[in-house]
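Minimal example, chain plus zinc ion.
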Amino acid sequence: MCVCCVACVRALGVCGEGRGQCAECPWICSTNLGQALAQPRTPSFSGGRRKLRRAAGQGPAARSVGGAEPGAARGRPPKGKEGSGSLGRPPSHDRDGGPGWLCSRVRKEREPLGQPPPDEARPRALENRAAPRPEGWLCRARFSRPDPAQWGGGRGREQSPGVSGQRREAPRLSGFLLLGGRLPGGRAAGVAPALEAPKPQRSTGMAKNRPSGPQGTALIYDKDMARVRLLWDDPECAIEVPERLTSTYARLCHRGLAQRCVQLPVREATEEDLELVHSPEYVAVVKGTQTMSREQLHTLAQQYDAVYFHPSTFPCARMAVGATLQLVDAVLTGAVGNGMALVRPPGHHSQRDAANGFCVFNNVAIAAEHAKRRHGLQRILIVDWDIHHGQGIQRAFENDPSVLYFSWHRYEHQTFWPRLRESDYDVVGQGPGRGFTVNVPWNKVGMRNADYVSVFLHVLLPLAIEFDPELVLVSAGYDSGIGDPEGEMKATPECFAHLTFLLLPLARGRLCAVLEGGYYLQSLAECVCLTLQTLLGDPVPALSGEPVPCLSALESIQNVRAAHAPHWASLRHENSGPVLTPSTWQGDTGTPLLGAPSIGTTDGLKPLLDKVLSCPSRSLCTGIGLAVPDSASSLNLPPALLQEKGVPLRQEEEALWARLDSAFPQDQALAALGKPLALLDEILTRQVRAGIAVSPTVSTTTVAALHRTLSFEAPRLLCVTLGDLDIPEDLRDDGRTLLLNIGGKEQPEAARSPTCIRLAGREATEPGTFLLALTSLILPVAYGFRPELVLVVLGPGCGLRSLDMELLTRLLQGPAGGRMLLLLQNPELPLVEALAWALVGRPLPGTLGPFLPASPEQALAVKRLCRQLRQDWPMLQVSVT
Ligand code: Q9C
Ligand code: ZN
């Protein structure tokens, strides 16, 4: 009857306890995919029309809309075995019925999504619209957020105490625990073919009460959206071709990525859905195109800027909206963790009463409005990385503080399409929405990975962390990628993996990427692959290119930070104003402000492109393994765990132990050092991607680890230590190791070394200061250093919250391609658990909690340090002055 999986059970809530089938469910889990693909699951395009009739109550199946079939409402008794795991094999099923495309409507009508109806769902933030803004008032005060007394409650925050020593009741681990992620078959990481990528992680039943792992990634695609095409000659619209969709999907299949996703069918949005953003009059105009002649379509199109129509435009555009809503529903009901919708036509330029820039209905804006009204969300972040300004989205939410809209766009001082004044950095939203529109104009073409990542680190992330969204929508246009004729930028495909990765710690990982532009088919397909791969949880590949932002990018960063400083606590300490004479006003100066000149500024694009695109993206696989000492057997840890036996110590390591840890008996040395070093060896030889090691004495272990790393061929090691740790000086000037200490002792001026960066003082690990340091210091330095391995050492009593450790663990995996060793000294068990899951990419639980800004003194200390260092570390720059 239907294809059903546990995902649908959760999404619909109608299958009851049983893990069996419901009658009308269209959700397809990845395990079913082979079968689903064998029998085309989505109806032909005429089938699409059929759907329309049915939904309107004209067809034979219309009754199922109202849930008249009791089987659909209650679910059938499970046919298969009970308890198939969350992604386990579903029970056998038959497909004698029609496609169950009405499912989400069914759910909507039967069972409200547990949220108040639209009118009551107004965010509390909106109630304060008229209220004057008090002096020194924090942005966050505008957001309705959970009571601090509650937000740790039920979501595991409080159960994961930090190591501050304030909560001592949690058991501590004093044994030697090692966690590693071994590659399947013990292969070298780089050669694991994509098709052998691990199945979605599933519980192996090793521990009770294990939380569900990464929840799966949805992919929504329907070839019917490839039906719209340009029917007349118009060079401006000629690039928006059906192959954008079909060739991208083909590449996802070829890479084995589509097969790893939960593939969801599209639905057609209702007119009610469309009218969340568009006027009924405009919807009627578009609806009317279905029966128009080519000439009539052409005439209508000329009323708009850069638009064409086709007899399939209306159904396709409805499907594009429906696909987006399907994705958002799947993510917000918890059926999947995140996902991507491949849609045409794109949406972000379309407005209440107008099509614009190939866009007919505003897919993402409608989805945001839908998430607000029908799921009761109060804070939604929209990240528009398409190379054009999504003025349609901006206008839809310019007054609305519940939607933070971020867009970067080719601007060239308002000479690039759509040439709007409102796209500049100083347009920040209106009324209660002031500060919730963030525009980053690119005034030069040729922006590279470093420029994009700099904007994320220095503009988007601080604001997004302060905003603490409940959902992230990405207007994922890839005309910002290398080779695109519209954007003329140079960001390579792996850059999109990093952009995605940097957003995943937000909103509990609830990220929905929705295709917008992207017109160079090769690059488009590759960039989509890297986005989806990252959503699936694969480690991000290293970022190529010189880690140096260009002068023009820095000017944009400085300007947008200055424009938003009045609105965001995290930028309050910004003291540079906007750039008064941009370098791009006269002549072309793409040279970086500081640091090495970027390579290939003037070279032809072709060789670089060929190189980038001919090299297939590989993913490092992870399967986390563990064997735990008895004391830790109750831990909730990722499945497929691995325990190290320990390597024999080298002579110098034994000597080190004797010298530094004479308090511990020598026979402990093997366990205390041997096991962490064994794990380190495996990471360095690429058998294991990441791991956690616990030691009674992390200082000595760190020293031994630094020595040992140096004995390998040229690995660049970033060692981030937290708290006051005693790492002897003689290790620091080898040039291949960079030490970054947060919260340790101040060093005398004379002892300062270029390979050791310190943000000293206990306050440095307090939440506000730490988050500031993370985005403005730690991550930029890490991206600048391009380490092959990151060693994170958590000193005893370093004072960092568990949440901050998790954020650090997740985000620092970006610069090193996921290769990270965590070293902890006698940690509390819940922290080990939380960090083990952070290493495998489980979303952070709950919200980020109330935003605590750094004190002015601390903010100044961070800023001063960044200024001192920016000559050596250009990624630290936030201004040209
Ligand atoms: N040479 C999207 O990417 N043409 N729309 C501009 C400048 C319109 C782009 C002409 C571009 C529309 C979704
Ligand atoms: Zn675009």
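The two ends are 66 Å apart (CA to CA). The CA atoms of residues 793 and 823 lie 5 Å apart.
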